[in-house]
Amino acid sequence: MNRESECECDACNLVSRTSTVGRRVSYSLSICVFLFLLLVSCGKDSGPNSPGGADWRLGAATPYTVDSAGQTTITDSVTGRQFLFPDGGHGTLRVSPILSGPAAPYAGEGFNITFDEEVPLAIIIDPAGSDQVMVMGYGTAPGAYDDIPGPSARWLSMPVVDTLDSSLAFQLTLPFTARRKTAQLGYSNSSTGSGFSNYWISSIPAGSDDATRRIGLQLQSSTYVDGVIERLSPARRAAVRAEVDGRLSPYYAWDGFLYSGFWWRSLGSMGRLVHPTIHLKLTANAGNVAHETGHYITHVLVGDDVWSTLEGQAPLWDSGHGIRDAVGRQMLLEDYAYYTEWLTVGTVKSYDLHDPYVIFGGMSPLTSDFPGVEGFAAVMLASLKRTTPSMRSLIGGHSTDVPVIGLSDAQVYDIIAQGATGVESLQERIATAVGADADKLPAIFQRCGWRYSVKGRLRTNEGQPLSGATVSSVSLVGDHVYRGGTSSIPSASDGRFNITGEVFPGESNIRVWDGHDSIDVPVMIPWSHATDETVDLGDLRVAHRVDLAPLRYCSIDLFTDADFSNPSGSYEYYERVEIGPVAGSFIGNQFTGAQDTTDGDVHTVVQLTATVDPQSGDLRTLEVTKARVVSYSDFDWTETLHLTLDSIKGGYSVYPPHILLECSVFEEEACHHISHYTFSGARGDFWQTMTDYNCLPDHANGYVSQARVYFRNEP
Q1: In sequence order, which residues have a C-beta less than 8 Å from that of residue 558 and are 6 or more positions away?
Q2: Long-range contacts of 240-245 (CB under 8 A, 24+ apart)
Q3: Concatenated DSSP letters for 442-479?
Q4: Which domain holds residue 392?
Q5: Which pLDDT tens digit goes with each residue over 486-512?
Q6: Tens-place pLDDT, residues 306-344
Q7: Partners of 95 in the beta sheet?
Q8: Residue 356 CB neighbour total at 10 angstroms
Q9: What values do phi and psi take at 372, rounded to 5?
């Protein structure tokens, strides 16, 4: 939807489709979906002759008595046509000529039509001599509106519900009560009713310039549909072609710029009727045609239920809307159509979706939640197709680097077909679809405008404030560093810092530079967080990241009230638990190891699994199983200990417990060169204990022979 001049309102709804008897017929269509969110409806005005607040002047009413339990017709002298009651009816049909009211888009004649009962009703019209014949009602109905007045009162077409010899039967949706509305739509409404009581009948003459223009626009839209289908994957192409040629074959209407997927029966049989209709004006340009066709393509791809949800997202205001408007993160209706429009004609209202600098120029994530801005999701989808590693920066327009994924058209449409109805769910589906390239998304979408302001506090590994450090945001993709914002001033004496407006969403790093060295601290900003709200990262522990790969042995040391089990039962007592060193290895941040030892009559088996943070030194998860079997001359005694991080208890004054995971390269500590050491115990004692030492680099082996790496679970 947009506010462009070509989208100014006039309303004439004409449709054309091949009939079931194999001949081209012309008839009108509109969507009468009456949802509880509609702000304006006929029944809410002062009377049946003033829908939408319009002023109507009617002629004298001609009454007709209907009393039939089955199908019947009434010949009317006012319209000069017949009315069809397919299920019969009991009451009075009244028909009045409209003498004045809102201007209709085409020459014709208007009538006010009412009936006492809520039963199906149609008017039968012979289209002879017409390229298009139309029956329009004046009122409101939902749909994907792309013009003004949008969903407010306007002339909207009635659908053809039957063909009778050479004539067409157009359904008339008369006002219906809140009781009927509640039964059909599943909600209560305080309004007295909804529907149409004022109708306009007109046509486009065969062979006229308008008829030629209509045929050309319909052909143009059909060509766009074919073009999109050719871009799809072979399997999806076949399924979409079957829908387009069959169940979802499109109707065309000429009353404005909108798309509507359904006709909701307001009378008689309940339920949703699939009636895909591309609405255009005869003055439509290529962009208008591509956009409304884009809505239709979305409907075919996502299916009826998801499209019904998307169509329900259509704004209810009358002033129109467009790219750059704040619509919220749960609004994707227009973005899917923008993507198809861009792919089909190369631009969206003169915008290139690969250039968010122009699209969102003058806007800032500091004041607008960019993922909730109309057009942003379309930019996201287009960014997946980018093949060049640079783009214009959102700030300043200079060239900046950006990761490349390079999806095909078919792959992007596969993502659309998954039917996300909000920006966050779309982001999740994209992450799943791109697989190993998901680590590129924070940088890609940050370049598009999904970026944050953050604050936090730097702490040393000992918990002291880190002052005087420069802080910046970086996203690491392989060996490439994508840079975001930088703090304008060094961290304060208490370690506090701020970065304004350019921090990456999702997983990224805060790079801390103390004047001598830089350390990357991993951070996670939820994608659900609004970009115009500052994110508090809390305390960030700044420590060098430990390389876990060389570590081959880990030990556990803790005091706890441990639960043991043996043949005598289960019991608990407070003790120091020392396990290890257990041989194993790290895969990622998780250590898995096992130990199987025998000492005399005691056989011990240990299984150890632990997850650590190699930067902060935190012990994240722990699971230990220790089985000890003591063999006696006539029986075996088995004792089992099982510990997890959550189950470990404190004891006495130690609560919560201190847990130490100690990992090393060697089973026994190895130092090829010791530069400093101290001993405890008197010189000459048989036992002396080394209490302090430093290991120097082992140049022969190319690494520091590290004494130990400690991971703690602190209380």
Answers
A1: 576, 577, 648, 657, 658, 659, 660
A2: 240/300, 240/301, 243/300, 244/300
A3: HHHHHHHT--EEEEEEEEETTS-B--S-EEEEEEEETT
A4: 333-448
A5: 998 999 999 999 999 999 999 999 999
A6: 999 998 887 655 566 889 999 999 999 999 999 999 999
A7: 62, 113
A8: 25
A9: -100, 15
Q: Do 51 and 97 sit in the same domain of this protein?
A: yes
Q: Are residues 298 and 352 in the same domain?
A: no
Q: Which of 715, 549, 554, 702 is nearest to 624 (CA)?
A: 554
Cβ 501 vs Cβ 368: under 8 Å: no
Kind of pairing between the strands at 535-542 and 452-460: parallel
Closest CA to 586 of 664, 509, 656: 664
What does the alpha-carbon distance between residue 406 and residue 383 come to, in Å, rounded to a whole number? 8
Helical packing angle, 409-417 and 209-231, nearest 10°: 100
Instruction: Please say whether the beta carbons of 429 and 414 come within 8 A.
Output: no
Burial level of 448, CB count in 10 A (0-12/13-18/19+)?
A: buried
Scored b (16 or more CB within 10 A) or e, 471-492 reads bbbbbbeeeeebebbebeeebe
* Placement of tokens 């039509």 in the chain: 113
Q: How many domains does the chain have?
A: 4
Q: Which of 429, 157, 144, 460 is nearest to 309 (CA)?
A: 144
Nearest-angstrom CA–CA distance, 568 and 308: 65
546 and 614 in contact (C-beta within 8 Å)?
Answer: yes
Tokens, residue 257? 């710029």
- Burial, 291: exposed, middle or buried (Cβ in 10 Å; 0-12, 13-18, 19+)? buried
E strand or H helix that includes residue 605: strand 602-612
Cβ 525 vs Cβ 427: under 8 Å: no
Of 494, 526, 542, which residue is a domain's last? Answer: 542
Report pTM: 0.73
| CA 647 from centroid of its chain's CA atoms | 39
